[in-house]
Amino acid sequence: MAPSDATPTSLTGIGVSPGLIAGPVARMAPGITEPEIATLESSRDLDKECDRIAEAAQRVKKGLELSAAEAKGEGRTLLETTAQMAADPTLTTSAQAKVRERRLVPERAVWEAAGTLADMLESLGGYMAERTRDVADVRDRIIAVLTDSPMPGIPRLPEPFVLVAEDLAPADTALLDPEKVVAFITSEGGPTSHTAILARALGMPAIVGTGTEVTDQLQDGDIVLVDGTKGTVTLNPSEEALRRARELASRVRVFNGDGATKDGREVQLLANVGDAAGARSAAEAGAMGVGLFRTEFCFLDQPEEPTVEAQVEAYRGVLEAFPGKKVVVRTLDAGADKPLPFLTDATEANPALGVRAYRTTRRDPEVLEHQLEALAKAEADTEAKVWVMAPMISTAEEAKAFTDKARSYGLKTAGMMIEVPSAALMADKLFEHADFASIGTNDLTQYVMAADRLLSSLADLSTGWQPAVLRLIKAACDGASPHGRPVGVCGEAAADPALAVVLVGLGVASLSMTARALPDVDAVLKSVDFAECQRLAALAIDARTADDARAAVRAELPILEELGL
Ligand code: PEP
Ligand code: MG
After folding, report:
1. Are residues 379 and 242 in the same domain?
2. Model confidence pLDDT, tens digit, residues 347-391
3. CATH number at residue 22
């Protein structure tokens, strides 16, 4: 990749997935807008117009099948389902009828036919209602062919590229092939959104929330250097900057499963996983166990509660990857950005503050009972050490009720997540019941700063570097220590190597993160003694602002610069 003669320009956004990489820009085509209601001139042959619709649908189907054949895992399944929708004649015949009966232009006919089909699926509810997204996708693709517009979705290019988009839906992110898309930049999106979490899991540098004033400057083919750690995009980078990026990319660091500070104080470095495949790759990456198994990820698409047998199978797959090791299983964390149709109420006005996570047991206590039963059965089949915890515990009554219930199913080690400020402040009382806690810094930050974690416009508030968040983490650790209970962190803060040092200094015993972050966090922890972690934690907690805390700690960790972190 040759540097250009133009002057380098530095642009900023929110870095959500670390790494430094350069590549040519490929912009994601904007979505299709609603075509105007227009009719065909009387000279046009209606049969030919109807044929055009059928041919466009065929082309879309073939294109999707080709992409599916190249894709892997979840991405392949998504593409196959969409291809089936394109092959279904319901949409095309209904659009053709509108051309014949009302002489509508084909693109408008397809738009209206898709609207009727989506309404029909929506009214059926459950799995069928979920398919409305595929209808919209197929509709937009057929209209793109009919109007000769760029195909919506992720561009398909022979060479690796930096994807630039307005936003990426989780379904788009699932389709990203890390061999083709080397990094992405979006004008919208927040730091702990699902998309950002997936980018980190893929190990793909990513910058979100740049605003359109940045993305509008990036055109197809422009060479950019993306620094996902600092959140900067350099347009037309210098040869020197490109050389450094290449050098860092060629250094491969590994984690040997021995997390500790320089003076040998063990810090368990664990993985966040969502299914058996993720657990297997985390084990290969050296994770010392699982610090957060997000069980709801196994069932996000399901309209009905999964059977106990289906749950046993899903949990067993994860436990089997860690024989003899700790696996912290979180009971279903449904609600807000992770609705489960069988457990949450889609009409709630304020879902992040609603009947979500552990609170769903108020309405549907048996769902938790079934889950605990399945987990106990899966544990009996494997050699993993199961620790079970409930999300969003807010009071001592809840901590007691949950841990009593879990133990009644034979699950010996029962704890809680601390992600509501009340739980951190009341930790000494909650630990009378809980054997351990894991701090979910994503939600803890959202609730203490009163800032929606999905909003890029509030990203400066939504960071674990906020001294208010750090003070709550300290309160949680202080509440646990008289009881001798371990506290871990499993939110995204654990994957920031500088913040990890602070967390250890505050008294956190384990850090759980996407497996890709393990080598970086390990390398930085191994460069400092525990006393230094405590000193840096005190610096951060006394800082006036999040930026001051980050800057003060980073200035004391020269290894970050050396490793390009
Ligand atoms: C958290 O809130 O920090 C957490 C780990 O849970 P989730 O991101 O799944 O809400
Ligand atoms: Mg959470």
Report:
1. no
2. 899 999 999 999 999 999 999 999 999 999 999 999 999 999 999
3. 3.50.30.10
